[in-house]
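Why predict the complex rather than its parts? Because the way molecules touch one another can change local conformation, and only a joint prediction can capture that. The input here totals 338 residues.
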Amino acid sequence: METAGTAVPLVDPYERTITYLRVSVTDRCDFRCVYCMAEDMTFLPKAEVLSLEELERLCNLFVDLGVRKLRLTGGEPLVRRNIMHLIRNLGRRIGDGLDELTITTNGSQLSRYAEQLVDAGVRRLNISIDTLDAAKFKAITRWGDLDKVKAGLKAATAAGLHIKINTVALKGVNDDEFETLVRWCGDEGHDITFIEVMPMGEIGAEARLDQYLPLSMVRGRLKESFTLTESDHRTGGPARYFDVAETGGRVGFITPLTHNFCELCNRVRLTCTGTLYMCLGQEDAADLRAPLRASDDDRVLVAAIREAITRKPKGHDFVIDRRRSGPAVGRHMSVTGG
Ligand code: SAM
Ligand code: SF4
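Output of the joint prediction:
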């Protein structure tokens, strides 16, 4: 299916073709992870949030424009009401422009949804788990329940979903568990990716500087227990992967603060309010909600998307700066979805 004006793919000024869209379908969440949200978050009023139909229209247009991979994230995507309706409809584009539909989730709702996700065409999930210790899990997520997440993980595995675990490396919190997590993932057949804490959004008392742990240190520590061989596995994202000889699994590292991965960036991010961020680390954005709601004519929307892509910056510049008290980027991760 082709909409008027979509024949030419999206290519930015640095010759990068945009083939990957991450969509934050809600800013709400059933957890309050300390690095992501303040406990007393104020969420967006409903009128500002795109309806599922509006999100679907936008996603379809991006697929028409050459996006081959869609990742739904949030907030927690699976807490949005009727989310399966959107997932099922987007799943119909697999093989019709779309190669893959994936989801990043905290896993809390997977017992309920795992099989429906497979039926909709989803094959892979990223599930965020920072610790295997129930008390620590509670402390990090504030509202989360590790047993529930583990049950969800089990349901997802049983349903045949391929799972990658995302673990944020937190100094003094889970840095004694990296080896355990890698072994556990090896045993369970999951890949694992470690993520550095990024300075996004005001999150209250916990100072991010105290949480920050460079992944070079994580990797150094893992090398004491495992043989890591650099892998040519690539997902088009910022992660660098290593094969773990001892477990047969793979471990990835996402190091936005210490490495530049922007040259190959093929992605843009859409928030649940219809704001398009061309770069996770920059404030510049384009409002797609106004053109979306102004007209049923997709050409208006395509023009707005194309204009936004001409503004995709060369790269980001995250810094955790001791002299600066606030975050480098003011919005929360739950807005753009990571
Ligand atoms: N709720 C889902 C989840 O937790 O997987 C999806 C949204 S969450 C914002 C996406 C990813 O961003 C999670 O893996 C989470 O750990 C990570 N994240 C959140 N805030 C972060 C921060 N300040 N720095 C680095 N990663 C962060
Ligand atoms: Fe929710 Fe995910 Fe943010 Fe945790 S990281 S508060 S689960 S959106």
